Amino acid sequence: MLPRRRSDVTIRLVQEELVILDSDSQKVHRLNSTAGFVWNHCDGTATAEQIAADLAKSYAVDLEKVLPDVVEAIAALQTLGLLEPG
Q: Which residues touch 1 (CB under 8 Å, ≥6 apart)?
């Protein structure tokens, strides 16, 4: 699966948190820096494993440690309807 963020949401950076306004659901979502990293890498070109590898490299942590968190973050974004279906 190559997760892709929806292009019809409004995104702002507010005090180091990514804020996403989903006008379809009339909801606002706040993402911490790690979830924001995952969101920014959900561009339809990378798998969860590739995103986790980029995160591990950027934060100098073990891939095995971050992979479950990345998979969970992607699942949460999907559940919230912030990613394209597929």
A: 47, 48, 86
